[in-house]
Design brief:
About 15% of the residues lie in helices and about 30% in strands. It contains two helices and seven strands, in the order E-H-E-H-E-E-E-E-E.
Amino acid sequence: MEYITKNTWETEKLGENLAVKLRGGEIIALIGNLGSGKTVFTKGIAKALGINKRITSPTFVFWRSYKVSHRSRIKYLCHIDLYRLPKPRGILALGIDEYWQRADTICVIEWAEKIKNYLSKKNLFLVKFDLINSNVRKIIINKRY
Ligand SMILES: Nc1ncnc2c1ncn2[C@@H]1O[C@H](COP(=O)(O)OP(=O)(O)O)[C@@H](O)[C@H]1O
Ligand SMILES: [Mg+2]
């Protein structure tokens, strides 16, 4: 599905709308340039899961997990940002591949194209962000099975 968002809020809302369809065990791979809206979209996902902690890009630590309290099946949101990951193989040292196998976890990965060879195609959503102008983004969401 292809969407055009005209402000920050609309992109956050798209993240919320995707999150309510999730059952646990999904990986949401976010692909797009700096400032294209990946973290905003992640905030929407977190909001829909009832996480009220502030979501910031975990740029220096690469990933952060949040406890989900109000759902039964989904227990954690794992937010990964690979912007500063030097080599794809480096992902293996982070220990997050364990997280994204889990059926009780939603894993959101910014700059996911850097590790595309390590992602299983099962339960994968690919979300591509295009920066059209200062307030407009084109966002394409595809489910892989
Ligand atoms: N339509 C839009 N969708 C998302 N963000 C937008 C939009 N219009 C303006 N913005 C702004 O663009 C920036 C996107 O930042 P961010 O989500 O951190 O990008 P990324 O994580 O992709 O680097 C925010 O400052 C946001 O307010
Ligand atoms: Mg970001």
